[in-house]
Amino acid sequence: MISLWETSRISFRALAVNKMRSALTMLGIIIGVMAVIMMFAVGSGANREISDRFSSMGSNLLTVRPGTGQAPGGVRSGSVNTLTADDARAIAEECMAVAYAAPVYGGSAQVVYGNQNWSTSITGTTPDYLFVQDWAVGSGTVFTDQDVRSATKVCVVGKTIVDNLFGGEDPIGKTLRVRNVPMVVVGVLGEIGTNPMGRDQDDIVLVPVTTVQRRLFSSSRSGSVSTIMVKAHSSELLGSAQDQVTSLLSMRHRIREGGEEDFTVRNMAQMIENAKAATRTMTLLLTAVAGVSLLVGGIGIMNIMLVSVTERTREIGIRMALGAKTVDIRLQFLVEALMLSLLGGATGIILGVAGALSISRGFGWAVDISFFSISLAFGFSAFVGIFFGYYPAWKASLLNPIEALRYE
């Protein structure tokens, strides 16, 4: 029996004779492995980014929204805002595990200062909103509870608003107009960047919730709010806070035991898990597509190896006549197929890593290139080579030496 080293040397020489054909045969494996590496890197990076951004918001947050959750298609069931600012006040005062609760109600509007205007998010809330979000005021101050009770026309603006409306001017004490309602700027928020969904959080104007309800955005139900943001005293008390909020709102909304709630309480852990699950699903889907490319590459290898067996039938006959055994012929063609897939896999890994790094630098996306994804892609390419190379090798080893020598 010929040694494995000698078989590998013969196989490499046979592949080198047809360089272009070998390169084209490897193309499917290269694309498949490259895609697997890149999909895993981008998916894993997205998961890490989501965790980091949600963690930066705090792990002890709850959101309370009207409706009974997500209906098919992602549409929330229930169209009436069932929550009010009084609900938020009751949560803060009566739920022992809750540190702060802030109502949120608003919309988008054009903001005008002098001859400058900017379309932004107008958020009506209370001073506790900043404590819930761990958001500091950069300069000036925030409006007070008295401003909320009196529906005072004051606001606190984000860094993006300052840059786009005021330029280098100090906005404190200046008056801007929101839907033709004059608002005096009393403070500027500290810069915090984008949220987990990629939205610029500094592109915001905070206004007392009553001012928004009475002067800017009307509602079908007086005093209603779209969300209540709740912060528990600690992440360990998050479960207790969720139970207390649910119990309190059920009592306030007169929901009978076993009845359908007209609100939904979700905690940060659920949001992180939902976001990660969506990313994982997309990554697996794209990786499956990359897997199809590997299978197509494997079929290409099998076809080329079958052609190679036909072309080299006389060579096989000569080797058998000189004493080569069936296992030697089978091993030679199997090694050739394996060599094609492994060379393709190695090239795909190099291109996949380079592609992932290019995406990170070009688009600013987070990517994680893991040893697991590289091992998986390389191992799968080796499997494809052995699986699809075995049939041509088996067919070559069964050739009759006499008929092979007569083959023209």
Molecular structure report:
- This protein has a six-stranded mixed barrel with strand order 3-4-9-6-8-7. The chain has a two-stranded antiparallel sheet with strand order 2-10.
- Residues 71-77 have low confidence and may be disordered.
- Helix 2 (19-57) packs across helix 11, helix 3 packs across helix 8 and helix 9 (268-311) packs antiparallel against helix 11.
- It has helices at residues 4-17, 19-57, 85-94, 128-132, 145-150, 159-166, 209-216, 238-252, 268-311, 313-321, 326-363, 371-397, 401-406; strands at residues 61-66, 83-84, 98-113, 116-125, 137-140, 154-157, 175-178, 181-189, 204-208, 224-225, 227-232, 263-267.
- It is built from 13 helices and twelve strands.
- With 408 residues, the chain is an alpha+beta fold.
Numbering strands along the chain, what is their spatial order in the largest sheet? 3-4-9-6-8-7
Per DSSP, what share of the residues sits in E-state strands of 2 or more residues?
15-25%
Q: Separation of termini?
A: 27 Å
Molecular shape: elongated
- Helical percentage: 55-70%
Summarize this structure as a short list of keywords or feature phrases.
408 residues, alpha+beta, six-stranded mixed β-barrel, two-stranded antiparallel ribbon, 12 strands
Provide a concise account of the structure shown.
The protein is of the alpha+beta class and 408 residues long.
